[in-house]
Amino acid sequence: MEKEIRLIEETDYVKAHTFQCEYLDLETFEDFMRRVKSDPDLYFVTVDGSEVVGVCYGSPSKKHDSVINLNGIAVNLDEIKNYARIGLGTNMLLFFETAVKKRRYYKIGVGSADDPKVEAFYLKNGFKPTELVVIGSNLEEIERIRVDDYKSGILKKEELRRRYNPREVIFILEKYLE
Question: What is the pTM of this model?
Answer without folding.
Answer: 0.93
